[in-house]
Predict the structure.
Amino acid sequence: MQKYLILFLIACISFSCSDEIESNSPAIQGEVNGVFFRTNSSFVTKNEDNTYTIKGETGFEEIALTVDTLKVGNYTLGENATNTASFTNNNEEVFTTGTNGFGEIEITKIEGNTVSGQFYFDAYSATGDTLNFNKGYFFFVPLENPTPGGEETTCPEATEAREAAAIIYEEANTENAEEFTLACNAYKDALLQEIEICGDDNGELQAVIDTLGNCENEDGNNDIGNISLTAGTQEINFDMVEVNVADGLLQVSGQTSAENNYTIYFEVPEETEGQDIIQNFELSLTSMFYPAEMVETNPFTSTINLNTTGNLNGTFSGILENSDNGQIEITNGTFELAY
């Protein structure tokens, strides 16, 4: 849950966010069975039994998080029926944690008449279907019937948030521009929050902010070139490419910016050109494919045309197969990389 705190900060950061998140915009969001979800409207209401429900709607789907009290803290789902989570999909099928599901709601901040926090849960429908809600955050959700007494963030809490943000920043994938920028901005936000609450007499926190700059990763390899191929009849362009150098090998990996999970990986000895010197070739589509062995026609072949410091160009084609002996033909495989 600690890492989710920083992802929450990412979501509600006041400096820079992903295009899908409006700064300080009340919302509930996360991943429903791996698919991004975000409410169009959200609010908190006090129920007749003195519980509180954090609710959001998209117009087609609805989520409701109910806790037995509205205070900063953690609320376990499943074991205690008072704390529940439910989700209604666009087919009006209701999933609820009840006493069989599990998960947790954490209220991290109550500021003014707004509530912020994070959550995750597994819930079940009346027919036994399962729904997983992961990486859930709610931020600046307003109370419909507010009561005074919101809790302010303390200095130890601000320091803890900053330390957690630093870990997320250090572990961010520098080759994924969006992930790196969000983690960097969340780190800056946590630093500024700590300065505001705790002070910064010796200027150490501001110095860290200054080193972060505009959170653009100047050392990343996001623009080094593309790897393209045709798998069967499908043209695929891996436009997010990374080249690492280790033990005399160029380790090339790529993924697409399209909404799929396609990846490619192969290795080439440094400063070596010629035929069939690509090693450990892997292509992940619907499953992982490798160069087929013992095929009579169209075996996997490759050519490295240019392999100098910082430049790698080549071609590849042939039959690949997966662990179930399913085969796919790769044609027009090319790459021109300047790393």
In short: Residues 1-24, 145-150 have pLDDT under 50 and may be disordered. The first strand starts at residue 27 and ends at 32. Residues 225-338 form one domain.
